[in-house]
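Hi R.,

Here are the chain sequences for the assembly we discussed:
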Amino acid sequence: MTAVKRIPKDQIAIEGLTGDAAIAHALKQCDLDVLAAYPITPQTIIVEDYQKFAANGEVHCRVIPVESEHSAMSACIGASAVGARVATASASAGLALMWEILYCAASMRMPIIFTVANRALSGPINIHNDWSDTYGARDSGFIQIYTQSCQEAYDTTIMAFKIAEDHKVLLPIMVCIDGFILSHNVERVEMLPTKAVENFLGVREPFIKLDPDNPITMGPLALTDYYFEFKEQQERAMEAVPEVFAQVETDFEKMTGRRYGMFEEYRTDDAEIIIFTHSTPGGTAKATVDVLREKGEKVGVLRLRMFRPFPTKEIVEVVKNAKAVIVFEKCRSFGAPSNPLALELRTALYDLEKRPMVVDFVIGLGGRDCPPTTIVEGYEKTKEYLKKGKAPLYETMGVRK
Amino acid sequence: MALDFAKGITEFRWHGRGGQGVITSNQMLGKAALAEGNYIQAFPEFGPERTGAPVRAFLRISKKPIQVYAQVYKPDVVVCIDPTLLDVVNPAEGLKEDGILVLNTDKSPEEMRKKFNFMGGKVVTVDASTIAMDIMGRPFYNMPTMAAAVMATGTVKIETVINEVIERYPGKVGQLNKAAMERAIEEAQTG
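And here is the predicted structure of the full complex:
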């Protein structure tokens, strides 16, 4: 790779793209060797658009229209094992059908990029957004990055290859957008010249690959003798992510001027109450905070991007002096004391002598709209809880009871 | 106190029926606004598209990046492209007091004001159905209705929108749409 340079403005194409289309265009520019996917709403446009690029000869990629998502991820692993740059896309039930193979992809250290348009899980069947699908896969060994805007989805998809393929990492990544809310929303996207993306990513250099002339076995059997050590190695790879991620973002920033971080801090400096969420509610929370600030409320937002690995220490640093942290999350962990995002945060904060109060709101399941008034309601409730000095472990908001 | 979460953002809500081009017109107006250097969000009311069923779409236009991701509840502009919907939905619902209501109907703005009890802002009516049948011979009334909306709001220049339409539908279809849009602008009534 040659040195990264700032792209001149006149080489940047501004387009109106949906989140799905933005990701498809990013994949088009990332010089994939293989894309294997099975269509499912609301990510279908990603694969549809990419298939068009392939049919038009705009990409030199083998597109494998497999018969199921289980096969999609399996084909991705096979292709990745021979050293190819590989991507897939799915959501909800499709992601659920990949389940077994997700763990194989991560443990075999395949740098596959998996774009997900987050969608609720059946039943009843629901095509709309929540985070149950990827939250369920949080322990699969994938890195997980959640994005707020179409621009961020485009940028993150490009950066993901460079992070995943780094030899210190070699892990697959889920790049997530909110189904429909972003996947079908046309926004302004600044697109980089393809040459610049190719130069930024370079060609994948596999650490080790399947080669008929030099036969090896990948992903075989490890029982009581070595299995545990494999898991240890996966964890070490996760630990290496933040450093590689930061380096990739630094290079990307040199090229574009844009940098996102493992999370975004918004007006948190003097905030007494910090809202903790991600994806599109992160945007809505920022807009809400602007209005609350005008009324003199000391409130900010910590918009998470990287859920795995969870940036524990860094998040504690940001929120430790706040009076309360309000979690808004689109997932219910049935029977659990609270829900996935709040569980992470509470664990991260537990060892502090003086901790902020954590208030957990489950919102938007199955795509129920989450307007700014939802955020305000959570904020007002939290102020009440602070007065009382006690909050429930979690509560649902916007549901008929 | 009512909080304004859309400061500096012009918000549109569209009504129509599945298959009438609500989502397409919404996206095209959005892309025209984008071409004029704005930030946009153009999205349908999320759901499986069913031909003939009432559908809605939303558009936000702003000089600055847009952070809110939710449906539009208090639009500045409401556009209804299907006259038969006017007996089914209340297009003025949630419309800002100084908002603009743009309707495809052969009725007058005064009649529509009374029907929906909307006395504020501006009401624009255009018989886009007749215009579409006259010019295109088919009920493609989304573009002429959009033209009336563009004229009424001034958020985006009509030339930019027509360019988008011609780019999307090259050849005869684009030109017919252009003609229908121009006639809609001439015939639209404001009251």
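Chain A has two domains: 9-256, 264-396. The two ends of chain A are 57 Å apart (CA to CA).

Let me know if anything looks off.

Best,
T.
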